[in-house]
Write a structure and sequence with these properties.
Chain lengths: ~270, ~270
C-alpha cells in the first residue's frame, strides 16, 4: 500500500500545450513595430481608402486591354528587343562566368586569385540590375546595348558564384588521373572538370535565361531598351489599357520561357 | 540471340539517336538565336566609340564623393528603405501564409481553390517589383506606401510557393492525432502544422527580407520612396558625386543585410 502512495501525483500545472510566452511577446513586438514603421513611412488608413477609389478608376481604364494594330507593332518591337537583350546577356554572361567561376574555385586556382575573384563576384552580385543599367546608360548611351551590358554583369555575378560552388564540390580523383598522364591544364579542365559540373551548369544557365528575360523588362525602365522602355512610356502617357497589354505579354513570355528552359534542362540531364 | 547481339551498334554512344538529334537541334536553334540577336540588335556605333571616354568621365565626376549630402539627403531615405523592406516583408509573409494555406493540397481539399491560389503565386511573382511599384504609384501616389505594397505583393509568389511546399511536406502523424482528439481546425493549424513548418517559415521570411532590402533600394526610381528617390534626385541634376554616395550606401546595406541574415539563419535554423 505504501508503495502506491510513493508515486507522485502528476502536477496539475503541467499542461499538454503550455502557453508560448516568447512567441506572444514576439507577436506583440511585431505589431508595435508595424505601427511604428507605418507612422514613419506616413502610411495611414485614409490614404488606403483614398487609394482604393483611385484603384477602381485605374482598373476600369485598364480594361479592356488595347490590341490596336499600331500598339501591337510597338509591343512586338519592344518584346523582340527584350528577347535579344536576354539572349545576348545570357550567352556572354556564360562566356565570361566560366573563367571567373573557375578562378574563384579554391581547389582549381591558387588562393590569392581565388579570394580576389570571390571579392569581385560579391561586388558584382551586390548591385541590382537596375543600378547597373543606370551606370551603363551613362557609359554607352540609351538603348539595348546598355541593357545587354547591365544584364551581362548581373549574370556574371550569379553564374560565376554557382560555377565556383559546383567546381569546389567535384571529385578530385578524375583530375589527379588526368594530371598523372601529363595533360596540360586546359585538358584537365575539359576532360576532368567539365563533365562533372556540366549538368548543374546547364541547370543554372537555363535559370539565368529565365531570369534575364524577366530582368530585360526591368532595365528598360531606366533607359536600357526593350519592353521596359515601351512599358514606361505607356505609363507616362497614361495609356493604361496598353500597359495591361504589355504586362500580359510579359507574363506570357516569361511563362513560355520557363517552360522552354524546363525542356532544355530535361534534354541535357 | 546471336542475331540480336550482332545487330547491336559497334560504336558506343553515350546518348541515343533521338537524344543526339534533339541536342543538335537545340545547338542549331541556340546558334540561330544568337546570330539573329547580334545582327538585328540596334547598337549605335558612335555611342560605342564614345564609351571608354564616358566611363572615365563617369568615375571622374563621382570622385570625390559628396559625403556631406548624407545628413540632409540620404539618411532619411535610408531609414525609409529599411522600413519599406521590413514592413513589406511582414505584409508579404502574412498574405503569403493565407495563399499558401489555400494552395497546399493537404490543408485545402478543393482543386478550384488550390488552382486559384497557385495562379496568384505565379502572377505576383512574374511581374517585377518595379512594375508593381509603377502600378501602386499610379493608385496611391508616389511614396513609401506604394513601395511597401509593391514589395509585399511581389514577394507573395516566392514566399507563398516555398511555404505551401513546406506545408505539403508536413508529416501526417501529429495531424491525425489532433484530429482524433477532436481538435478544431485552428488548433490543428497551430499545434499540428505550425511546429513542423516553423523552421522553413522563418528561413523563407529571413531570405526574402534580404532580397527585399536590395529591391526596395531601387524602387524609388519609379516613385516608390527610399534610397531610389535620393538616387533619382541626384541623377536628374547630374550630381554624380551624390550618385556615388547613394551607390556606396546601397552597397553597404546590401552587404550588411547579407551578413545579418547569414548570422540569423545559423542561429535560428
Amino acid at each position: 500500500m505504501a508503495g502506491v502512495s510513493d508515486v507522485p501525483a502528476p502536477s496539475p500545472a503541467r499542461r499538454a500545450f503550455p502557453p508560448n510566452w516568447p512567441l506572444r511577446i514576439g507577436l506583440v513586438a511585431l505589431a508595435l513595430y508595424v505601427f511604428y514603421a507605418s507612422s514613419i513611412l506616413n502610411i495611414t488608413w485614409a490614404r488606403f481608402v483614398e487609394g482604393f477609389g483611385h484603384g477602381g478608376r485605374f482598373l476600369s481604364r485598364m480594361f479592356p486591354p488595347n490590341f490596336a494594330a499600331d500598339k501591337l507593332a510597338l509591343l512586338y518591337s519592344g518584346m523582340f528587343e527584350s528577347l535579344q537583350i536576354a539572349i545576348l546577356a545570357t550567352v556572354f554572361g556564360i562566356l565570361f562566368s566560366v573563367p571567373l567561376g573557375l578562378a574563384a574555385a579554391r581547389n582549381l586556382s591558387f588562393a590569392p586569385l581565388a579570394w580576389f575573384t570571390r571579392g569581385l563576384i560579391a561586388l558584382l552580385r551586390s548591385f541590382h540590375p537596375v543600378i547597373l543599367a543606370i551606370l551603363f546608360v551613362k557609359a554607352v548611351g540609351f538603348g539595348a546595348l546598355a541593357g545587354v551590358l547591365a544584364l551581362i554583369v548581373a549574370s556574371m555575378g550569379f553564374l560565376s558564384k554557382l560555377i565556383a560552388e559546383a567546381a569546389e564540390e567535384i571529385s578530385m580523383k578524375q583530375m589527379e588521373a588526368i594530371r598523372a598522364t601529363g595533360a596540360p591544364f586546359l585538358s584537365v579542365l575539359v576532360i576532368a572538370v567539365a563533365p562533372q559540373i556540366m549538368p548543374r551548369f546547364i541547370g543554372f544557365s537555363a535559370y539565368q535565361l529565365d531570369s534575364n528575360l524577366r530582368n530585360s523588362a526591368l532595365v528598360g525602365l531606366v533607359g536600357g531598351g526593350g519592353i521596359g522602355a515601351t512599358l514606361f512610356t505607356a505609363f507616362q502617357r497614361f495609356d493604361y489599357d496598353f500597359v495591361l497589354t504589355i504586362v500580359l505579354a510579359i507574363i506570357f513570355t516569361v511563362t513560355v520561357g520557363e517552360i522552354l528552359s524546363g525542356w532544355m534542362r530535361r534534354l541535357f540531364q | 540471340m546471336t542475331a540480336a547481339a550482332s545487330a547491336l551498334p559497334r560504336r558506343w554512344h553515350r546518348f541515343s539517336l533521338s537524344e543526339r538529334i534533339l541536342r543538335s537541334c537545340f545547338y542549331l536553334l541556340a546558334a540561330v538565336a544568337v546570330i539573329w540577336s547580334i545582327k538585328t540588335i540596334e547598337i549605335i556605333p558612335e555611342f560605342l566609340q564614345d564609351a571608354p571616354a564616358q566611363t572615365a568621365d563617369l568615375f571622374a565626376r563621382m570622385w570625390p564623393i559628396d559625403w556631406s549630402w548624407y545628413k540632409s539627403g540620404v539618411h532619411a531615405a535610408l531609414i525609409e528603405t529599411l522600413h519599406t523592406a521590413t514592413l513589406g516583408t511582414i505584409l508579404a509573409v502574412l498574405l503569403a501564409s493565407l495563399v499558401a494555406l489555400l494552395a497546399a493540397r493537404n490543408v485545402t481539399r478543393s482543386v478550384i481553390l488550390n488552382t486559384i491560389a497557385r495562379f496568384i503565386l505565379v502572377a505576383t511573382r512574374s511581374v517585377h517589383a518595379m512594375v508593381w511599384a509603377l502600378f501602386f504609384v499610379a493608385v496611391f501616389g508616389p511614396g513609401a506606401l506604394a513601395g511597401t505594397l509593391a514589395i509585399a505583393v511581389h514577394s507573395i509568389g516566392f514566399t507563398g510557393k516555398l511555404l505551401s511546399e513546406a506545408i505539403e511536406e508536413a508529416k501526417t502523424g501529429p495531424i491525425e492525432a489532433l484530429t482524433a482528439a477532436g481538435a478544431t481546425k485552428l488548433s490543428i493549424l497551430a499545434k499540428g502544422y505550425w511546429p513542423q513548418v516553423k523552421p522553413a517559415f522563418l528561413g523563407v521570411a529571413i531570405f526574402r527580407w534580404d532580397i527585399n532590402i536590395r529591391e526596395s533600394a531601387v524602387l524609388g526610381l519609379v516613385g516608390g520612396g527610399g534610397l531610389g528617390m535620393a538616387l533619382e534626385a541626384a541623377l536628374e541634376n547630374l550630381y554624380w558625386d551624390r550618385v556615388g554616395l547613394v551607390l556606396i550606401i546601397i552597397f553597404g546595406i546590401v552587404i550588411a543585410a547579407e551578413i545579418l541574415t547569414t548570422w540569423l539563419r545559423s542561429r535560428i535554423i
